[in-house]
Please model this.
Amino acid sequence: MVSLGSICILRLSAIGDTCNAVSVVQAIQARHPAARITWVIGKAEATLLQGLPGVELVVFDKNVGFSAYRKLRKQLAGRTFDALLVMQLALRANLVSLCISAKRRIGYDKARSKELHSLFINERIQPARKPHVLDTFRQFSSALDVPLATPCWHIPVARDDENWATNQLGQSRQRGLVIVPAASAAERNWLPERYAAVADYACNNGFSVYLCGGPGATEVALAQAVSSHCKTPVRNLVGQSTLKQLFALIKQADMVIAPDTGPLHMAVAAGTPVIGLYAHSNPARTGPYGQQQRVADAYTPLLLKKFGDKAGQSPWGLRLKGDELMTHISTEQVCSLFDQVKEENNL
Model:
């Protein structure tokens, strides 16, 4: 095994991908315990990973424009890493990599490269056929001689954040279901009346239900719409938590329901059973890792309807378009998965 003194991870966004990457970073730490690890990361993502053991977080704030590149170059001046893992294909990430000096610049294989990615690296991970996003990330750790093992996570939570979550859940002795209704794109959001029907079903099965999410206008409005359709009481916490507090709440909850959004992957990292709602993106590629049997999958039948016998030849990362696609997920589908998770986990 080649000894590595310093490793730089470049993965700026998003929340879900950041959660997936944590397990890879921690596998690298276990294999190379003496290596100093630096992670160049987005501002919001850094708030979630604050206090990650043994990892220096260097924030790249895209919102400040070109000054972010100057600041990063200044922060890393005089440092040359033994290896840089360019784990993001966006042009912004490729340009950020120019601010980082490294002997080995490891990036994606040719088939997956885009945004001029090949110009910024000198090594490639091995190609793979139809991998999950997390398994693609794990190929970066394989390039550093890290043996593949079952992914595991440790995202630290401060006591104040744990106490906040406990206080929310502590108002009821019932089991807790967290529903995160909104994704970053409105077309990925399920119908409010169907969320409400599932919330009522969960309440009638002895669960307390918590609506969670960020403070954006769309998220707030969707949560209010869900609440208005509920026949049983739910707690609306949308916009009332930090990312760390939300992670703490998800970690203490008994189950999570969410569309293709960051908190779904936070649930995986927290070890909480999660039901994913997928119609636009391939759940085999971006679904909750290790829990893909718990996905309400409208994507696969919609793909078959669109392409017929040629569906299997469609691009692995193909996203379907249409505001109506989430309507193909039924309330009965999600309630059935709720029952499955409840039974499997003796809830």
In short: The chain has a mean pLDDT of 96.
